[in-house]
Amino acid sequence: MRGSVLRSLIQLRARARWQRAPGRTRRAPPALPWTVRIQLFGLMATVGATTRRDGTPYFGGEERTDAELRLDGKAPVVTMRGSDWAWRGFLPEGADRNHSAAHVTDENAGLADGFPPAMVVIGGLDPLQDWQRRYADVLRRKGKAVRVVEYPEAIHTFFFFPVLPDSGRLVTEMKAFMDENSASEPAAA
């Protein structure tokens, strides 16, 4: 999956650059923005389906962190009300945000022996940044390889917006991380 996500992000960025290319005298074909939206939502749906299927954590807990309180209603994309709504849809009925699928930031986090190297991306304007840092800390304490990449001016899911400068920087960082870590993986038979 990780290669297809990166490929989709690169394609979206290339299309956005094409639309803004210097010297272009005509507008992009009307279907292009629609196509980009479909691909973006398809990518989000793919990530969402994978999240539900493989148990990828949706970081959180019942406690409200400093960043959640400080940035609620001030940062775009994520609000605590919206986040609570997403948790209700993600978690099993009757579970709260301390459920193991959401609350993976303490010593009870279950990590398989073969847990792969992880890259945790943190935006300085993301209300979930404290949870992301805690997750990286848990990985380190459990002896897992983790790279934390911080973008002080980035919002939650900034990588879905190719016009944001950090989006391109992240694609480069992701590629380097995958190249470094796939070199050590055994080839598939």
TrEMBL record:
GO terms for molecular function: hydrolase activity. Coiled coil: none annotated. Residues 64-159 form the Alpha/beta hydrolase fold-3 domain. It comes from the Eukaryota. InterPro entries: AB_hydrolase_3, AB_hydrolase_fold, Carboxylest/Gibb_receptor. This is Alpha/beta hydrolase fold-3 domain-containing protein.
